[in-house]
Design a protein that fits this description.
Elements (H helix, E strand, L loop, with lengths): L11 E4 L8 H16 L4 H12 L5 E6 L2 E11 L2 E9 L8 H15 L5 E4 L7 H9 L3 E11 L14 E5 L5 H11 L5 H4 L6 H13 L5 E2 L5 E6 L5 E13 L2 E9 L8 H15 L4 E7 L3 H9 L3 E12 L2
Parallel strand pairs: 4-5, 11-12
Antiparallel strand pairs: 1-2, 2-3, 3-4, 5-13, 6-12, 6-13, 7-9, 8-10, 9-10, 10-11
Helix pairs in contact: 3-4, 5-7
Length: about 325
């Protein structure tokens, strides 16, 4: 099967390092507004960082231009032998006219010319990127579907969720970090998310992900008061972490569960459900109206759990990977 390289004579695809990016603010403001409307996510903080890095000519990627107007942006980040596609965004009025596909083709050509890259991942929350999705599939990328789900806290049971026997749900503590990394790493063995994001395959990678969740703005403002750990007692008298939930604030009145993991040996007894119930209770107490999370559709156990807890899908998007983990 072949795919025709879509083109549009009204568009120019220009490397970020060479483009006149003085008009990038208008496009990023459109994206920020769309994210609020669609996902209830205020992307202002990360957007400001992206604008600054673009102006400093330090972000590899491309813009799509019609005349002097920027109507699309795509960029990527290289970390050793791993390349992550950070975003592909096209202005609403230009969607379906090949801008996303042309920017993706330019990115892949650039990435594939770079030495030492053996792994490419695309985990960005795409909106109407049908052209770039088809191109990635044609170029041999594996494709999975992610679901962005939302819960109305106003409809949640605001009573603290009960804990399984022998398990205590408590607030997150900074000294939980190292053990939480081990729980996250073990919980993702053999799971589809470890195919999408190779960081889940090592404890070092999981530590990087947890640092992003707790110490950076990319997934919102970390909320230790709504983040939780589930402890259980060992026969030796010590207590170990059976599960963790990491929460953040992504907009006024909207929270996000960026990570929920349960130690494999403790799965199936209700720890995940208890973590979610207690976190929703805390979000409600703090006055939040909505809580979101994202899940890979093929992770059927997690999806069933989230649906049974009242989360509903509000957006679907494709993620891709190719190469060695």
């Amino acid at each position: 099967m072949t795919i025709a390289q879509a083109t549009n004579a009204d568009l120019r695809i220009v490397p970020l390092e060479l483009a006149d990016v003085s008009g990038i603010d208008e496009l990023l403001e459109e994206q920020r507004t769309e994210w609020i409307d669609l996902l209830k996510w205020d992307y202002s903080g990360p957007s400001q960082v992206i604008r600054q890095v673009i102006r400093e000519r330090e972000l590899p990627g491309f813009v799509a231009m019609s005349g002097k107007k920027i109507i699309g942006l795509a960029y990527y980040v290289v970390d050793g032998s791993r390349c992550s596609i950070g975003d592909v965004y096209v202005s609403k009025s230009w969607r379906g006219r090949a801008a996303d596909q042309q920017m993706m083709a330019a990115m892949l050509d650039s990435i594939e010319r770079a030495p030492g890259i053996s792994r490419i991942e695309s985990q960005c929350v795409g909106v109407d990127n049908d052209g770039s999705n088809r191109l990635l599939a044609h170029r041999g990328f594996n494709r999975l579907t992610r679901l962005f789900m939302m819960h109305s806290v106003a409809e949640a049971d605001t009573k603290t969720g009960s804990s399984p026997s022998g398990v205590t749900i408590r607030a997150w503590r900074p000294d939980d970090f190292s053990e939480a990394v081990r729980v996250i790493h073990r919980s993702y063995r053999g799971q589809p998310d470890s195919l999408i994001n190779s960081q889940y395959k090592t404890e070092a990678g999981c530590a990087e992900l947890l640092t992003i969740l707790t110490d950076h703005i990319w997934c919102g403002q970390f909320m230790p008061q709504a983040s939780l750990a589930a402890e259980y007692a060992r026969r030796t008298g010590t207590r170990d972490i059976a599960g963790v939930l990491i929460a953040s604030r992504i907009a006024q009145g909207t929270g996000h569960i960026g990570q929920i993991s349960v130690r494999p040996s403790r799965q199936g007894v209700g720890i995940g459900r208890a973590l979610i119930a207690n976190s929703l209770t805390e979000f409600a107490r703090l006055g939040f109206a909505h809580v979101s999370l994202a899940v890979t559709s093929s992770n059927e156990n997690a999806l069933r759990l989230y649906e049974s807890c009242g989360f509903q899908t509000v957006h679907e998007f494709s993620v891709f990977y190719r190469g060695r983990s």
